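== Fold encoding ==
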Amino acid sequence: MNPQAALQPILHHLDSTREAREAAYRWFHQHPELSMQEVQTTQRIMQELETAGISFTQLSETGVVATIENGPGPVVAMRADIDALPVRESSGKEYASTATQVDKTSGTEYPVAHACGHDVHLISLLGALDAFHAHRDAWSGTLVGVFQPGEETASGARAMVEAGITEAIPRPDVYLGQHVLSSLPGGAVGTQAGPVLSQAFSAKVTVHGSGSHGSMPEKGVDPVLLASTIVTRLHHVVSREIAAAETAVLTVGAINAGFKSNIIPDSATLLINTRAYSQEVSDHLKEAIERIVRAECLAARSPREPEFEYYDVYPLTDNDEATTEQVRAAFEAHFGEVANLGRVPASEDFSVIPDALGTSYSYWGLGGFASYPDAPGNHSPEFAPDLQPTLDRGAEAMIVAAGAWLARS
């Protein structure tokens, strides 16, 4: 029996669970939670796993790993992120989120929505695990489901590593994941070997001046002017320091300084974000930021050294060639045409866990909108993928990809 034929009972199982999966998806969509605060989400995931009879372990405060052992064979891990965003949903869906949540770090209450599609990911993984568990005669090996918190803050995967995921699960032969996107046709899957999601980091840079009356600038050092010259100089880095064959983005998203028009403040803060597809380019961007900031501070007679705080640090997602070709071949056998994902400038912490495990990985995209290419992008208040065929296709993709290793031949 070929793998595709062996997978048919598992895939057909999705027909009998469609209504339940759609109902669960609506619940998750209406109950989004901020990164590392996914308490209700985690409880519902564990409830669904328990109902299906699948063994699981809570790992870190809001992470969950589920394990199905089914005889000798490969170990396949599949990941879904579970957190939501501080966004007020305006999708117009009848099940749109109206939730709010107080951020435990800042104390600020935010509207919250699954404006990135992580609810699609977790429902897809739950559906795939349930289907594999219900048809154990069709496959052999071990299947691990990783429900990861905190992707949006680049903290969840590292939290699961720190909580001991490398000891909590058998070492996988392969680690798989997907993301619903508006950049692919609705219902399509797309992948490619090599870099697919960019490396990224953000920096909070504080520069210091000397306060003075706005009418007497000569008596102070103006940090607003200093910050402005830094911004101008930083935007030369990509065009004049990065090779044309490389790809990089450097954005200054915010400048904060002062409170009144006639007062020169004593400091200014810049928030900077970068993207790159190689460690070398990312390192160059970081070096350039510090070099330029320090030089401009010296030129402006800044009375104190600038301060640099780095956060939201995301690794490169670099699909293993052999693993990705095996996934692509399985997709082509099942779906027919497979799209070329291309390099997506967004960033993910997906690769943190397989890197810690020493495991090869593959990550693909899932088209979520029939209105492609005019659909709203991820993180838009209007982002809410079509219910179907997205939910079925997401679960199918996970089953087919995992089945490339696990299906009985």
The mean pLDDT is 96. The chain has two domains: 3-193+316-406, 199-313.
